Amino acid sequence: MNSIEPGVTIGRYLIRSKLGAGGMGEVYRAHDEKLNRDVALKVLPSAFSKDQDRLLRFEQEAQAAGALNHPNILAVHDVGMNNGAPYIVSELLDGEELRAQLKDGAFTLRRALDYAKQIAEGLAAAHERGITHRDLKPENVFITSDGRVKILDFGLAKLRPQRSQVISSEVATQRQITDPGTVMGTVGYMSPEQVRGNQADHRSDIFSFGSILYEMLSGRRAFQRDTVAETMTAILKEEPVELSEVSATTNPQLDRIVRRCLEKKPERRFQSAHDLGFALDALSTPSGSVNQLSAPTDRPLLSREYLGWLVAIGALATAAVALLFAYNARKNSGTPVAVKQFALAQPAEGALVMQSAPAVLLSPDGSHLVSTVRTAEKPQLIDHELSSAATRPIEETQGAADPFFSPDGKWLGFFAGGLLKKVRLSGGVPETLCKAENSRGDTWASDGSIVFTPGTDSPLYRVSADGGPVEALSTVDASAKERSHRWPSALPGGKAILFSVAYQTGNPFDDANVAVLDRSTGKHKIIIKGGVFAHYVDPGYILYARRSTLVAVPFDLNRLEVTGPSVVVQENVEGLKANGRVQYSLSDNGDLAYVEGRADDPRDAAQPLVWIDRKGVEQVLSESRQRYSKPRLSADGRTLFVEVADPEAAIWSYNIERGTLSRITYGGVSYGPIPSPDGQRLAYEATRDGVAGALVSQVDGSGEQRLSSTKRLHVPTSWTSDGSGVVVTAGAESGYTEVWLIPVIGDHTPQVLVQGPFNAGGARVSPDGHWLAYVSDESGRSEIYLRGFPNAGARIQISADGGIGPVWSRSGRELFFRNGDQIFGVSMSLGTQAVAGKPQVLFSRLIGEDASGPAYNIIADFDVSPDGQRFVMRKYTAEARNPPKAIVILNWREELKRKMSASR
């Protein structure tokens, strides 16, 4: 390929000088005449364009990588063709490749760790978008003059053609596209699956990362041998020399991280770059620090997420010391000790996650307490070993909910990312058992099966604890108005299952019944009316919740029948009305752990609706106190549509001028009203006769029309500007949430607008109908993004440090969103292109619970007046945000027996 002389124009780029050449093409300094900036332009050999399918896929991936807009990934601005040769335009960097720095030998620990964390952050951002590098090596890692790491050449591996000549250990080899058996990557940094020519996923990048980190720490390559064949054999069969043998200052914990990255089997490595980064951050804490890491650095060594759970478990660890003495007293004596109670206070940041049940879980033998703690990004399971007061995070359980123990206490099951998983309590890589989109409970039976409820409108299902086929275990009785079977708990012997029955009317907390399923017949019967979240207590009781009170009844395990009256045994226990989760757990040896109820919990308190101006000044809109949620104003601002729990969720309208509140929907539950632009119709999610989905009706509730039927979430969030379609947040088979557009007229076939692998939702169409603002956690946390509508183009990130619940002003010149307890405004200029200003805090105040789920909680719980000057929301009070407090009672069963005996 001939070089391009300075002064030549390619597209809109004026070539100024040549920067260098390599096996993948020549790089030039060029000037973008349209945007008046200097860029780097790489021209690739024209032979790469012969395979059009390969070229198209490369272009798509290069654009996707450019759209990441991550500080640790080279920004790709443009791709194009010049005389039959493809070219890439990217940001112009000042610095040098990592390879150049490695020529001086091993790095200090601080420097290696700093670079490693930046690389991991860049990989995590790409992997969460489904983009794998496939050729990570020091030549593709650039260090800018200010110490910033940039990963280069995402997507180029897809462009490389097959070739037959002999390769060396220094050059890039072929990339597998569709032909199995073709190796890909760079030999010294390839993963075992690449060497074998097998399909490689994001975990292959983690292996390559381990090779780079090993080289930064040791000054030598992990698998370099004299020949290509010997190098490949080493990758497949050998382990690199121990870091401790080549570096006396190596941190043993860092050595373990490198070893885990370099595991031969992908399933034994870190399963995500996010988790890898989490482990690297942990090295900078007091428990993992070394002298070489204690010097000042420009980059923070503690991530927000790690700090989140570190602070959170601090309170738990303190209380665990008190538990230690009582637990060991019982253990060493071999006999029960007196009933002892301990409180585990929680800080406001990193508090227990009430959306997980139980948030504090006792192991069967009472030796461990597992808590679900909110970090800065996602929930994390924390293990507290009561015999030693040791506290540690359980690796790779970010995003976990509803944990449960195996009968022997060696395994933990949990839900995360739309999947049912299990992990050894002692540590290891979680194993996926099956899909489970929206957990409503789980239990591990003694016969080796796991019984669980995978959705909001579902019967019980069964899967082997080793994985395999999933089969329905119960049948929801529609004739009895049953909605779902949830919160299962296996009875001793595994022959029967306790569970809660939720009904089509009422809520799963106040109006549920307790049933027992005989697994031999597949039939169930109601044994307790007015109860939820039941568990068996030896030697013959059932414990269940009735509102915030735990109640016990005697129970015959053989006949599966209640044999006596109920007795109140514990009061003031936390519960969630929305789904029937109750915060308590039991050990087999009679201990109880529970979370104290919060009488002033903002989720349950009836409050008025209020106006808030742009300075945060409050004015009461309606004196009527209800459990309001998701208020939405009509286009003219005269009517407010709102969800009210009364006690079942229904849609109501509030006439602002007259001050009257009127119910709209009946028969089943209805959530989240979205008025149409013309003010004539409403869209909402509802369950009718046991069938859930998105519905549309007239504003008075008449003429109800079904848009979808599903066992997953279909939450309407916006109308199109012409009223022809409804945008919904939809639960997908992948377990993630997606953004769909469902036509109102016709067969209602949905069009997928935003799809993972990540959660997306809460989307709102701009008033001009050409733009879509939505929430996505593709970066690892919820952020607001903007893209074209209905046809996607380049997307831009609107929020800077997290955000949920986008809301457009009626003019389209502003976009509002929430981050924590702050409302932000962003100036917008919409046309053929969208230009967003810098997010500005309008006011701060308590605005309910933090976002905790991919569907409902990323949707705005406020709306803005037509003039953009006032915001409507339910009133919250500062005292309603009390951090939850966990209580552990050792030998609680003795108290239960005493109360049951006293009632006879």
Notable traits:
36% strand; alpha+beta; 61 strands; 15% helix; 11 helices; five-stranded antiparallel β-sheet; Transferase(Phosphotransferase), domain 1; 4 domains; six-stranded antiparallel β-sheet; globular; Phosphorylase Kinase, domain 1; Neuraminidase; 904 residues
Structural class label: alpha+beta
Proper CATH architecture of the largest domain: 6 Propeller
CATH superfamily of the largest domain: TolB, C-terminal domain
CATH class of the largest domain: Mainly Beta
Which range does the strand content fall in? 35-45%
> What is the total tally of β strands?
61
What strand order characterises the main sheet?
1-2-3-4-6-5
Q: What number is the mean pLDDT?
A: 81
Uncertain runs are 157-185, 285-321, 599-603, 849-856
- Please give the radius of gyration in angstroms: 29 Å
Number of helices: 11
Q: Which fold name corresponds to the CATH topology of the largest domain?
A: Neuraminidase
Main sheet attributes: strand count, strand direction, barrel closure: 6 strands, antiparallel
- Domains, number: 4
Distance between the termini: 95 Å
Structural write-up:
The structure is a single chain. With 904 residues, the protein is an alpha+beta fold. It has 4 domains: 1-92, Phosphorylase Kinase, domain 1 (2-Layer Sandwich); 98-302, Orthogonal Bundle (Transferase(Phosphotransferase), domain 1); 304-598 and 883-902, Neuraminidase; 607-880, Neuraminidase, CATH 2.120.10.30. The protein has a 6-stranded antiparallel sheet, covered by helices on one side. Strands 29, 30, 31, 32 and 33 form a 5-stranded antiparallel sheet that branches. The longest helix has 30 residues, at 304-333. The N and C termini lie far apart (95 Å). The model is unreliable at 157-185, 285-321, 599-603 and 849-856 (pLDDT under 50).
